[in-house]
Design goal:
Layout lengths: L32 E2 L2 E2 H5 L1 E4 H5 L22 H19 L3 E5 H4 L6 H21 L3 E6 L18 H20 L4 E4 L5 E2 L7 H22 L5 E3 L9 E2 L4 H10 L6 E6 H6 L4 H11 L2 E5 L1 E2 L10 E2 L3 H13 L8 E3 L10 H28 L3 H7 L6 H8 L4 H8 L11 H11 L1
Parallel strand pairs: 3-4, 3-14, 4-5, 5-6, 6-8, 8-10, 10-11, 11-14
Antiparallel strand pairs: 1-2, 7-9, 12-13
Helix pairs in contact: 3-5, 5-6, 6-7, 10-11, 11-12
């Protein structure tokens, strides 16, 4: 069964850089080889079910603008089935290899946990049937533990143990559905795992609860044979004043404390990096340095707004720097580029959904090609190696490896007169601009 929601019937294809068709790829040539792999295998694009098919087009000061037909009329489960038809048609038209979902995006919440999980099972079966003949696979699934009013004080960190228990039941059903659909990862996004005021917050207790929650999830993952990693998505604030999964460094410290670094990695997002006062490149570099890189949500924020605008990634230079780091480490394993992005609430035509994805996929492809060229030329890796070359010498290696005591190093320093060297920042920024 297909749908007539979009005006297009044929999948979007690569047309080359000269094309002006907004529904044609200019840079994304999925079969083009990039450092030994097809471009599609490097980028691993994923459509986010929630923003593309569930978000009605509201913002903090205004309501629905999209008027999607599956959001009006009929019972909720029938609407969910109609939404699935449109979703899989869009996956086909974009020719993407993956999609991702929250439980309540795909199936309606019921009057009880049992009813909600039953609804999820119905839609999971529909997905499984569609995926038998479709190209698309599941990048990751997750549970929405933040929208319902029961989670207003958090889920795993809630002061009420019954809410904690309900969250466990919801997450178990979500990872079961993800496992049934052969999902590559499972994401934990703690939208309200934080506080609004310290006056009513026991931080140690809440962190211990969150650590226990994730530890149980890891145990269950192994019990059912789910082979992918659990991913945490750092976010510093909004809606709470402070969230426990603030940024890469904070999450790493949390995972170390609770012994979770082996099974839990990070799903990073540009918009969240900016809210934390970092760049997207910073978060990716640090995740690799700490050994917890997993996957990416590929969207962006508005630098003039202090909240999560979830716009499509359109900055090729920013993506080139991210891909430069990723390619140095071999790229994705189980992760991918998930479009956790919303079209603007004034973009009300159905085809705007396709156009936004195509433009952003091209932006990512352009960044990937620039990163490939920079690496091949040693444009950034060469100057970086030169800057730290002293640590490759005999004394540098001895000091770094523990082969010299503090006293020995101090004695050697008495005969030294080191002079500062230029960091060459403007030179390097100019080099990057030559490639993008």
């Amino acid at each position: 069964m297909t749908t007539s929601f979009f005006t297009r019937t044929e999948p979007v294809a690569f047309a080359g850089e000269a094309s002006t068709d907004p529904l044609a790829f200019r840079f994304y040539d999925k079969d083009r080889m990039v450092m030994g792999k097809r471009m599609e295998e490097h980028l691993r694009f994923s459509v986010a079910y929630w923003h593309s098919f569930t978000w009605p087009g509201g913002d903090p000061f205004g309501g629905e603008t999209f008027l999607r037909p599956w959001m009006h009329g009929g019972d909720e489960l029938s609407q969910a089935k109609a939404k699935a038809e449109v979703a899989f048609e869009m996956f086909r038209l974009l020719d993407v290899p993956f999609f991702a979902f929250h439980d309540v995006d795909v199936a309606p919440e019921g009057a009880s946990l049992t009813e909600s999980n039953s609804n999820l099972a119905v839609i999971t079966d529909i997905f499984a049937e569609k995926m038998q003949s479709a190209k698309v696979k599941l990048l990751w699934g997750t549970a929405n533990l933040f929208s319902n009013r029961r989670y207003m004080a958090g889920a795993a960190t809630n002061p009420d143990p019954d809410v904690f228990a309900y969250a466990c039941g919801q997450v178990k059903a979500a990872i079961d559905a993800t496992h049934k659909l052969n999902g590559a990862n499972f994401v934990c996004w703690g939208g309200r795992e934080g506080y609004e005021t310290l006056l009513n917050t026991d931080m140690k207790k809440e962190l211990d609860q969150l650590g226990r929650f994730l530890s149980m999830l890891v145990d269950y993952k192994h019990k059912i044979g789910f082979s992918g990693p659990i991913l945490i998505e750092p976010k510093p604030k909004e809606p709470t004043k402070h969230q426990y999964d603030y940024d890469t460094a904070t999450v790493y410290g949390f995972l170390e404390r609770y012994g979770l670094t082996k099974d839990v990695k990070l799903n990073l997002e540009q918009n969240h990096a900016i809210l934390a006062g970092h760049s997207f490149e910073h978060e990716v570099k640090l995740a690799y340095a700490l050994g917890i890189f997993g996957s990416l949500d590929v969207n962006r924020g508005d630098d003039l707004l202090g909240w999560d605008t979830d716009q499509f990634a359109m900055d090729a230079k920013e993506m080139a720097l991210v891909f430069h780091e990723m390619l140095k480490h071999g790229g994705f394993s189980t992760g991918g580029l998930n479009f956790d992005a919303k079209i603007r609430r004034q973009s009300i035509e159905p085809d705007d959904l396709l156009i936004a994805h195509v433009a952003s996929m091209d932006t990512c492809a352009r960044g990937l090609l620039a990163a490939e060229k920079m690496l091949a030329d040693g444009a950034l890796t060469g100057p970086l190696a030169e800057r730290y070359a002293g640590w490759s010498g005999e004394e540098g290696q001895a000091m770094a490896s523990g082969g010299r005591t503090l006293e020995a190093i101090a004695a050697r320093a008495e005969g030294l007169d080191p002079q500062p060297r230029s960091g060459r920042q403007e030179l390097l920024e100019g080099i990057v601009n030559r490639y993008v």
